[in-house]
# Entry
Amino acid sequence: MAHNPGALYRLFYRSRQTPEVSADLDFQVQQIIGSSISRNRSVGLTGLLLTVQGHFIQALEGNVAAVRATYARIAMDPRHRDLHIIAQGPAGKRLFGDWNMCARSLAPSDKAILEVLDSKGGFNKEALTAATVERLLTTVATIQSRTALEALVS
# Structure
């Protein structure tokens, strides 16, 4: 199927962090975000990166060429392995338009999200579908937005 080069395209993937990344996750994620923001902004790419139980889950959205080129670059990054595309294809609207890249780690303080994962048998990378990843990442994005807003108000 041919894609309109200017049309919005979204890709969800998961990967496993290397032990070196897991050992210093906050630093490594800040490095990823720091190098991604300006690059993503320059090509109109938005998305969200989530770290959970030794894995990365990420959404990338933009035009098809930018998404595919970014994913190809990510696939070469030695900080993770076992990459798996969960879903990709045309998208009607941006889900993560507020961020050229945003990262969030699920911590014990993310009780509601962790409870949902636990009620579904815990985090199971094999069970991730386009719908479950979209729901998970948009929930995290909403929490991230609220947290940022509360920090501004406080």
